[in-house]
Amino acid sequence: MSTKEHGDGFGLYMARLIIEDKMGGKIIAKQKENGAQICITIKKAKGAA
Question: Which are the contacts of 31, defined by CB distance < 8 A and separation ≥ 6?
């Protein structure tokens, strides 16, 4: 997915690498009629309020 008509979606790929590989989280991207829906889930840090 990309904001550009002919984009490569590289930014979303980099975000996935950081969120999933480095933060232990999950990123899900879904195409919608007028754009995209991005859902990001990350673990709460120990000791965080």
Answer: 1
- Structure-block tokens of residue 15: 């975000």
DSSP code of 31? E
Query: Which of 32, 33, 31, 1 lies closest to 14, judged by CA?
Result: 1
Query: Concatenated DSSP letters for 12-27?
Result: HHHHHIIIIIITS-EE
Question: Strand, helix or coil at 30?
Answer: strand
pTM, full prediction: 0.62
Phi/psi class of residue 26: alpha, beta or left (left: φ > 0; alpha: ψ in -120 to 50)?
beta
- Assess whether pLDDT exceeds 80 at residue 1: no
| Number of folded domains that form the chain | 1
Give the range of the structural domain holding residue 9, as residue numbers without chain letter. 1-49
